[in-house]
Amino acid sequence: MLRLSFFFGLICLVKTDTDETCPSFTKLSFHSAVVGTGLNVKLMLYTRKNLTCAQVINSTSFGNLNVTKKTTFIVHGFRPTGSPPVWMEDLVQSLLSVEDMNVIVVDWNRGATTVIYNHASSKTRKVAEVLKKFIDQVLIEGASLDNIYMIGVSLGAHISGFVGKMYNGQLGRITGLDPAGPLFNGRPPEDRLDPGDAQFVDVIHSDIDALGYKEPLGNIDFYPNGGLDQPGCPKTILGGLQYFKCDHQRSVYLYLSSLRENCAITAYPCDSYRDYRNGKCVNCGMPQKESCPLLGYYADNWKEYLKQKEPPMTKAFFDTAEEKPFCIYHYFVDIITWNKNIRRGSITIRLTDRAGNTTESKINHEPATFQKYHQVSLLARFNQDLDKVAAISLVFSTGSTIGPKYKLRILRMKLRSLAHPERPQLCRYDLVLMENTETVFQPILCPKLQM
């Protein structure tokens, strides 16, 4: 609650800019946030015909909108300082780069700008009603509900849900990016985003312990890094404004990464984050060899599979890197030991390729238990995906800084890529790891299994 109270009380002065050649997102000052603003919804259309210069449209003037194409609405959330969302332009341009569609920015900054969060949340249904009126006219002109896609951020996720409810869940898709938690946690389905609000609802939860909603709200709910603290975000109030909003905003930046060609974030359906970290869910819960769900724009590739489930819902977990494009590359490290006594501890593994690039994974979220002649499969997560691994190093640690140093006697170590199962698996035999001492070796190709 400390974070919430500070967040809602932040002060930031924003300059207004009335000289503009193209319509732009409403910019308000902190003074506006203090005195409050009346609701006014502005719809701004971008297409490939007008990539950088928006057209203000309404129920009687559609501009370049093509009713035969997908129409994507971007709905922002609470704006306690009146400033435009810093990610908005990037999201618009990225969407238009991957598909020829209509992108409509729903600018309800006059309504969302207030230091009193309750005032902004109370306007969400009114925003939904404005959107319903507009969509009704688009449908009359020949558009299809199947082609309506809503991306809602924070309060915008619940606005999208309210619109979906007005169409009895027939909207094509809703994506909720860290749906707002305060005043919505524990509310019944009719008062928040719900899986029945569209034909497919996907949600990214990145701040479930503060500004975001904790429980599942979609057909598939993604929990990056367990949905809690996001790597690279400040851990203390000394981080300033970023301490309050970084985790919450990370959902948007993760979605943006799915629109880049260099990063497809794979998630793993699982009952819990702990099970995912322990490598229990890497087959995606599917008997057939189909790809795991992808985060973000292409999450609806799993739509048909989820329809077969009862209920058609699942949670998916994954880890990310600290910086863009956030991708993590998963490997299994299989270890068979021959110590007489049980050893418990963590493993740090570093990979080096022929060019000298290195990447490291610390598998230390909980101690692994090594028993004689038992295989332990550890899920390693690397920031880089090194194709030609020339050297591997291992460090074993029990976490104790005093007392005797233990040895871990490895009969066989195997490294296998989850993202690229076709790659040759790498092995090493008969290693002895001294505790807290790095052991470097060259791997060899594992023998192929005999049929």
Structural notes for this entry:
- It is a single chain.
- With 451 residues, the protein is of the alpha/beta class.
- It has helices at 2-8, 30-35, 88-98, 109-112, 117-121, 124-140, 155-166, 241-257, 273-277, 303-307; strands at 40-46, 55-57, 71-75, 102-108, 148-153, 173-177, 201-204, 220-224, 268-269, 314-318, 329-337, 343-353, 358-370, 375-382, 389-397, 407-417, 426-434, 439-441, 444-445.
- It folds into two domains: 2-318, Alpha/Beta hydrolase fold, catalytic domain (Rossmann fold); 329-445, PLAT/LH2 domain (Lipoxygenase-1), CATH 2.60.60.20.
- It has a ten-stranded mixed beta sheet, with helices on both faces. A five-stranded antiparallel beta sheet has the order 14-11-16-17-19, with no helix packed on it. It has a four-stranded antiparallel beta sheet with strand order 13-12-15-18, with no helix packed on it.
- Strand 12 and strand 13 (358-370) form a beta hairpin.
- Helix 1 packs across helix 8.
- The longest helix is centred in the N-terminal third of the chain and has 17 residues, at 124-140.
- The protein is elongated and about 75 Å long.
- Residues 37-326 form the Lipase domain.
- Its main location: membrane.
- InterPro entries: AB_hydrolase_fold (IPR029058), Lipase (IPR013818), Lipase_LIPH (IPR016272), Lipase_N (IPR033906), TAG_lipase (IPR000734).
